[in-house]
Fold each of these.
Amino acid sequence: MLGIMKTFTRWLLLAGALLLVAHLYPGVVVTSFTSALIAALVLGLLNTLLRPILVLLTLPVTVVTLGLFLFIINALMFWAAASLLPGLAVTGFWAALIGSLIYSLCGMVIDVVVERIFPSD
């Protein structure tokens, strides 16, 4: 039961983070909180299912760029989610890159907060 609450809380906070990204950066538009919830779910699914495959396929480029290519992969996941969903819009690749950076930073803070609220012990 605690795991479900932890996942649900994280999902709500990540949807709020998407709204924050849209508020902070004009290149990202989220039309509603419902759209943000759906976008957070789709981003989570893309990052769980597609991102590991892309990371593996682009491993040589990632090694040569000392890991900086992972930012490009994150931007592509953000851009892909925006192209799949009508409630999330990104104006271009650079907007996807900046939006994904802000969203990732928010996600790191959210992970710390959720772990403090719901410890795994």
Amino acid sequence: MTFSQSIITCFQKYFTFSGRASRSEYWWFFLFTVLGGFVAGLLEGFINAAAGTPGGPTLLSGAFNLATFIPGLAAGWRRMHDSGRSGLYLLYPMIAIIGLSVFIGMFGGADMLEGSDPSALFEGVFGLVVIVSLIVVVLSPFIVLFWLTRPSQPGSNIYGPNPHEVSP
């Protein structure tokens, strides 16, 4: 799949979270979102500088990010399906961060952070759980990145036919 085909496909499947997406479809669309965000940011910088309001409104990049968020999420979801995993695995880093935050909040960690000795957060059994959770939070984006780079499962899987084996 080419760069332009990937962009067209991802926008055509704007809210499609079922099926499979090839590596090229996902990574070309990812590159598009990175480059598009960079260009939108540059244009905003020039516009705001010309208007004499550096650091002014970020409507252009905000609109671009808003327009590409759902298709990017859907493409990643389908990409996980292509490697034989549930699309929910894409949200693993966010789930780990929320879980750690809830754990710290429920067991008084917020008080430890606000107190005079934040190192108390890392003491005892509570501290051990926090340290292990922090390791999971730090490693989880790399695990998801690894899954996103895996080759397609050959043949059909529970999410549909292999995109490389289906004629366009």
